[in-house]
Amino acid sequence: MFNVLPRYGVLSFIALLAIWLPIEAFAHGVDESTRAFLLENTGIQIMPFLYTGAKHMVTGYDHLLFLVGVLFFLYKSRDVLLYVSMFTLGHSVTLLFGVISDIQVNAYMIDAIIGLSVVYKGFDNLGGFKRIFGKSPNAKLAVLIFGLFHGFGLATKLQEFQLPSEGLIPNLIAFNVGVELGQFTALAFILLVINFWRKHSSFNRFATNTNCLLMSAGFMLVGFQLTGYFIN
């Protein structure tokens, strides 16, 4: 019975992605209630920005897909902590720096790069770089660099709402802390599922399929964002 469960888990995961992606194929979408809050907020509002940051991370599946790829073959807690810290450092720096410095980037292009980060990680997990180039890129540096792009994605979305200067810094810090809380929650769930799955033989059997699926999802995100770039 327990050998069957992981198979159903994988199939459920694939079915969820197949249904999920076409419906909400923009990873940084903002729902109406959040949009209304960001457009109308004034002054320091720590808790609302904390909540908004956490919600944005939990529902930002491009971030989550990238983290699944990063964590997929990490077996030691020390490595998990190191890689997640590199990602956190990267996206925190550009999130804060991008908004405070008012650096404008095209949202479609930055989201396309984030989609590429998912493709990269799936391809790396499949050993694609070693087969073609003889070695893989520095994984820690790659996670840091893509973390910088992920942060710019968050900063770009916030800048669309022209946040008032009053209370900007504390609100941004609260948003970033919320992002980290959302990331921590998502990580706990992802690690729970992956660690459970690793105890079964199906993990190795489906590892290739899962990383191919990650690459496919990344390509879909890239295609969607580039389409948006050229038609808008």
By oligomeric state, this entry counts as single chain
Number of helices: 10
What structural category characterises the helix and strand content?
mainly alpha
Number of strands: 0
Give the percentage of residues in beta strands. Answer: under 5%
- What is the helix content? over 70%
Q: Which geometry do the CA atoms define?
A: globular
Question: Overall mean pLDDT score?
Answer: 83
Please provide the ordered H/E string of secondary-structure elements: HHHHHHHHHH
For the largest beta-sheet, the strand count, sense and barrel status come to:
none
First and last CA, distance: 51 Å
Mind telling me the C-alpha Rg? 18 Å
Low-pLDDT stretches are 1-6, 18-27
Structure commentary:
With 232 residues, the protein is mainly α. The protein has 10 helices and no strands. Helix 5 (77-100) packs parallel to helix 8 (139-159) and helix 6 packs antiparallel against helix 8 (139-159). The longest helix has 31 residues, at 168-198.
List the helices and strands and how they pair.
Layout: H1 4-23, H2 32-40, H3 46-59, H4 61-71, H5 77-100, H6 107-125, H7 128-133, H8 139-159, H9 168-198, H10 202-231
Helix pairs in contact: 1-10, 3-9, 4-6, 4-9, 4-10, 5-8, 5-9, 6-8, 6-10
